Amino acid sequence: MAPQIASIQSFFQPETPSAQKTQKPAPQHHRPSDTGDGFSSSEIEAALHPALHKWQPRTTYNETDIGDLVPGPGCVALMGRIVNFHHIATPSKMPKAAQGCLKLTVKDDTGACSVKLWYAKVDYNLRLGLLVSIWTTHVSNAESSSLTVQDASLVTSIFPERDNSCYFLAQEQSDEGVMCKTPLGYRDGKQLDGLMTLKSFIEGGHELADGKILVCVKSIGGRKKFVTKKGQEAEKVDVNVFDDTADAKLTLWGPHCSSPAYWKTSYTVLLITRPGLYGDGRPLLSLTNNTHVDVDPCMTDAYWLRGHAQRLTKREHVNQPFPEGVFDVEEAAESELRIVFTLADIDEFVRAAPAERYVGYLSLTIVELNIYSLYQRNMLLCTECCGVPIFANAVTTKCKQCEKDLVLRINPRLVGLLIDETGAITCGKLVWSDDAWEQLLGRTAEDLAGSNLTLLKYLENRLLFLKLAVMFGWSEDVGKLCILRVTIV
Ligand SMILES: [Zn+2]
């Protein structure tokens, strides 16, 4: 594993603590650090993190595919995605000297090359998968000792802050998510060379020189900052990944830590070429200098894996959202035709014609309730974010990973088991609407969360063994029985 290096951001850290930097000061809180030098916080920010100057090329740059690059002088413009990068600090007190170099591996659909991006003050905010454009006047062969030679035998070195003949642009706005996403060597309908399942990779495939794995992001951990034994500041993020054969933990270090913020759980697929593997027991993946990461590559296997991940989440979501707009509850309620089913009927119908969508009535008895026990475990309400289930006895909370404000819904496990004369149905096979919960409990989710123990005990005693008339809906897309309305009979 490569020695850990300080993050790029840490270089530009102003002397005030970072919490103060990001929080815009409220006018009534007059902080002593704001007084004195007469500069506003935005002016200080602009001086510390200048944007790269606007650039107008003075000559013609030939737009070139990376695969067509030839070593030597010549004005070329390249476009590609960052598949790896690392940071080399070269701190200097000279006012015009570079403070460091970002060594990127940039890939388009034809090849990959290395780019040494020198910087003095500009914070480039790089991440894996970012689409970038590079204008340069010289390309050379990579030093043969360099680790990045594999797949990227050419290198160009640019210092846009000092050299007006080259430029670097992150294509944040113009990225429509399709350019430069075909894996190198991929041809439609053909298996990519060296691609193996995660299980095969862990069980020996990693010894192959050019092993590739295709994994989907399962969950993303929080960014952890700590000080190493050598006294250096370090940062890491753990990302759980999986395919249909195995699970693994991918640890990202330093500058790579900002990348997962752009990934979606159960959606983002990573094609990792030559990942590092270490750890006994649970397999741990890492990125070495020689690794390439294609984020959401355009290839059939990636689409299949994303579909597979989405089907899994549908089954595993701790509180599957109620499907809005699938069933016309009003119309069904007004209809004179009321078909009463038994659980056995539904079982039979769903097996015979799963694609059929229908709404009907059931007469069910509650035989298991978990109000009291869920309350005690602080699990009355729940939802999921960043692939992590979140429980609370409250209707709102913040995700610890992405800090998004979340609205929690009543935990479907509140009603453990319902029966009729033909069978039983467990909470795992039901999706309740907010209305149905309110009709059953006689109170909103907010009221339930705010109830005291005595009231919850009373509620549990009152509802247990009650007979319910349930309006339900079935749709194959949901894959579970939806409870639309409940009447206590
Ligand atoms: Zn989240």
**Percent range for β-strand residues:** 25-35%
Q: Which molecules are bound besides the chains?
A: zinc ion
Morphology call = elongated
Helix content: 10-25%
General description of the model:
By secondary structure, this protein is α+β, with helices and mostly antiparallel strands. It has helices at residues 8-11, 18-22, 41-48, 198-202, 300-316, 329-334, 343-352, 371-376, 434-441, 445-449, 453-463, and strands at 62-63, 72-89, 100-107, 112-119, 131-141, 154-158, 167-170, 195-196, 212-220, 224-227, 233-242, 247-253, 269-273, 276-278, 284-286, 292-295, 340-341, 358-369, 381-385, 388-392, 396-398, 405-407, 409-410, 415-420, 423-426, 430-432, 467-474, 481-488. Strands 8, 9, 10, 11, 12, 13, 14, 15 and 16 form a nine-stranded mixed sheet that branches. Strands 17, 18, 24, 25, 26, 27 and 28 form a seven-stranded mixed sheet that branches. Strand 8 (195-196), helix 4 and strand 9 form a beta-alpha-beta unit. The longest helix is centred in the middle third of the chain and has 17 residues, at 300-316. The protein is elongated. The termini are far apart. The model is unreliable at 1-7 and 10-35 (pLDDT under 50). The site of zinc ion (ZN) has 6 residues, from loops. Zinc ion (ZN) is lined by residues 385-386, 399, 401-402, 404. Residues 1-25 have a biased composition (Polar residues). One of its GO terms (molecular function) is single-stranded DNA 3'-5' DNA exonuclease activity. Residues 1-41 are annotated as: Disordered. One of its GO terms (biological process) is resolution of meiotic recombination intermediates.
